[in-house]
């Protein structure tokens, strides 16, 4: 299962160019699209989910052309937008059964099979007969995935799946996606770097409509040639640091500021190097892209 995107551009009617010449190949596994607010993530997710058209470019999913074979593609895709509605007074089982009916699955046994399977895969058996209004944020997100699974799609596209989740729920949800990703191709977007760690087989970084990076998560770190420097400095020096270096972190401590910066050279003779992490690499990439 491969998604091939070539020379994709999208300009909204008001003239905003949301995507510019995107070239991307997404293979089987879990693909994470990282970028700040307004980068173009939702636009790309919606185009891939076939709910939005685009100007220039070509997208092929499993060899099918997204313009020509739209109905075929819809059969193999499940899409969970950033915001979606659940019927609060229905139980999860009732809700999923209702959605099956809307999709004209009239055979009761077939509906039961699909609903039971979706509930099992998402690990929601224990709450399957509880009303959706009693679900936590993480459970609602999993219920959303259950909804996507009703048609047994091969690709699942999820926009900002961890937004609004607390740290524990975020970890649980990440683990859940990892397990699901063994059988399905999952494409998800996020603006949180931690969401990608230990989950994605490949990632893309997007900013202002341009794809700045595509590859393995560890390659993002490798491609930053600069180093990370840490140390403590005085109040006057911290202003100089902000002006000349990429400050990843700074903290007021007794006797000055603790800093973490990215740069080719150490800012001070007392600076020490530290191993670069994903966050350093991402910020360095964003600064280069800007
Ligand atoms: N319907 C629209 N009409 C005009 N401009 C739009 C529309 N939707 C999005 N945009 C603009 O397109 C750009 C990309 O928006 P998009 O929602 O794809 O970004 P995003 O990365 O998903 O951001 P966020 O993380 O804030 O959701 C932004 O400049 C946004 O303001």
From TrEMBL:
Keywords: ATP-binding, Nucleotide-binding, Transport. InterPro entries: AAA+_ATPase (IPR003593), ABC_transporter-like_ATP-bd (IPR003439), ABC_transporter-like_CS (IPR017871), P-loop_NTPase (IPR027417). The keyword Transport applies. The keyword Nucleotide-binding applies. SMART domains: AAA. Pfam families: ABC_tran (PF00005). PROSITE patterns: ABC_TRANSPORTER_1 (PS00211), ABC_TRANSPORTER_2 (PS50893). CDD domains: ABC_drug_resistance_like (cd03264). Belongs to the ABC transporter superfamily. This is ABC transporter related protein. It comes from Syntrophaceticus schinkii.
């Amino acid at each position: 299962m491969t998604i091939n995107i070539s020379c994709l551009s999208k300009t909204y009617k008001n003239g905003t160019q949301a995507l510019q010449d995107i070239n991307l190949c997404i293979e089987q596994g879990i693909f994470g699209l990282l970028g700040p607010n307004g980068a173009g993530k939702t636009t790309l997710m919606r185009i891939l989910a076939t709910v939005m058209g685009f100007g220039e470019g070509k997208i092929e999913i499993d060899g099918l052309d997204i313009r020509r074979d739209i109905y075929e593609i819809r059969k193999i895709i499940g899409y969970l937008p950033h915001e979606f509605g659940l019927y609060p007074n229905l139980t999860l089982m009732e809700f999923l059964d209702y959605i099956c009916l809307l999709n004209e699955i009239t055979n009761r046994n077939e509906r039961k099979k699909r609903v039971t399977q979706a509930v099992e895969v998402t690990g929601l058996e224990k709450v399957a007969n509880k009303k959706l209004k009693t679900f936590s944020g993480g459970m609602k997100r999993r219920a959303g995935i259950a909804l996507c699974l009703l048609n047994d799609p091969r690709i699942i596209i999820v926009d900002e799946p961890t937004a609004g989740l607390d740290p524990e729920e975020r970890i649980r949800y990440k683990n859940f996606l990892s397990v699901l990703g063994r059988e399905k191709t999952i494409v998800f977007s996020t603006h949180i770097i931690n969401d990608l760690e230990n989950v994605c087989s490949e990632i893309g970084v997007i900013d202002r409509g341009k794809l700045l990076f595509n590859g393995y998560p560890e390659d993002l770190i490798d491609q930053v040639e600069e180093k990370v420097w840490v140390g403590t400095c005085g109040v006057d020096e911290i202003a100089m640091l902000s002006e000349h270096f990429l400050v990843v972190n700074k903290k007021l401590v007794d006797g000055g500021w603790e800093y973490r910066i990215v740069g080719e050279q150490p800012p001070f003779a007392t600076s020490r190097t530290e191993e670069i992490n994903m966050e350093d690499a991402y910020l360095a990439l964003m600064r280069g892209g800007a």
